[in-house]
Amino acid sequence: MPTDVQRNLGPSSSQSVSYEAIGHSEDLTPILYNIDPEQTLFLPKFGTTKPATELDFTWMTKGLRPPQDNAHLEMEDYAFGKVGSIQGMSNNIQRFQNSGYVTDDQNLMAKAYNNEHGSDLDDAKFDAILGQSKDIEYMLVTSNKKVAGDATTPARSGGVPFFMQLSNEAVTIDTTTGIFTVADTLHLQTGDVVYFTADKIPGGLKSGLVYYIRTDDTNPTTKFTIYNTMQGAIEKDTTQQVIPTDSGTKPFVVKNNVIALDGKTDFTLDDINNAMEMAFRRGGNPTEMFISGRKYQAWNKLVLAQTTTQRSKDKSISMVATTYTGAFGTINANIHPLYPDNRIDILDMQYWDNRFFTKTHEVQGLPKTGTYDKFVVETKMGLQGTQPKASCSIINIPR
Fold first, then answer.
1. Does residue 196 contact residue 202 with C-beta atoms inside 8 Å?
2. 216-237: average pLDDT
3. Global pTM?
C-alpha cells in the first residue's frame, strides 16, 4: 500500500518507551470505523475498494442502460453496431491530520479520575482518532466539489453532494416537431428518463414528472424527443410522444435523479417517490435515506399521516417512522447529526466506497525534542461514487 510515512526498521534504542520502540501497528482504521458510529454513519456504511495509487484517482463506470426492442428475422445477416460506452470519473485524495502533545509530567501525574486508555498520551491519541473520524464524515456529508491542491492549497475530496448535484442543461424546443435541443452533449440513451424545470414550465409538460427520451436519429448527442412511456420512446410510437404547446420560460432538462425544490416549498412524499422512481427506472435500488433531525420530524408527519397509529401491549404509542415502503421500494430513514436541513439523500449503498491512499495510522519515528511526547494521526482518502444515478436526492429544501 502506498504511504508517505517512512517505516523505521530499527534497531530500536529500546522497547521500553514508545518513542524509542519500533514495530507498532500502523493501521488504526478499525478504530476509526467503530469509534462513534452514531456520529459517523457514512464512514462504516460505505464499502472500501482497492487502495488508491494516485492522489487524483479515477475509475470507470458503465451507464445504466435502458432496455431496447430486440426482435429479428429467422433468416438475416447480422448487423453490427457500436457497443455501449463507459464513463471515467475521478476524485481527489484528501489528507487528514490530527496531532497533539502531552508533557512527561502530565503523563506521569496521579489522576483523580480513571483513564480508561491507560495514560494521558493514549487518551489524547484516542481523542485524535475520534476527531479525525468526524472530520472525514464532515467531508463525506458536505463537500460539494473536489480540489486538486497545490503547494499552497490543500487537496480536497468531493463528498456525496459532489456526486449528487443537479445535472441540468438548458433546452430549446421546437413546438411543431417536439424536438428538444441542448448545446452540450446529452450523455443519455433512448429509453432513459428525464424531467424538466423552468421559470415557467412549457405548456403540456408537468414539473417533476418523469418522461422517456428518444435520441434523434441524425443528431443523437444534442437532440431528442420525449414520450409518456418507455415503450413509446423505444418503438417511436407517435401516439405517446409529448409535444409542448409552447416553449415556456428558461426550460432545463434534468438528467440525473436530483429534484431541486424552490427553497420555499417543503418536500412531500411525492418528491420522495418521484426521486425514487428515477433511480428505479435507471436500475438503481436506493434503500438508505439520510436526513437532518429537523427534517426527520417533517418526514414523520408525512409518513404517519398515511398510516394508522398502533398502540403496543404496554400502551405506548409509536410516533416514529423509520421505514417507508412506496411504489418504487423500501427506504430506511437515518437521522444524520451533520446533515443540513436543505437536502435529503437516498443512497444505493453498493455504489459508495471509501478509497484509501494510506489508511489511518499513527506517524512513527517522531523524535523526542523536549520534555513531552508528540503524536500525529493521519489518513489519506477520498470518496468513490461508482454509479451516482443509482441513488437520488432532494435539494434546495427550505428550513
1. yes
2. 93
3. 0.80
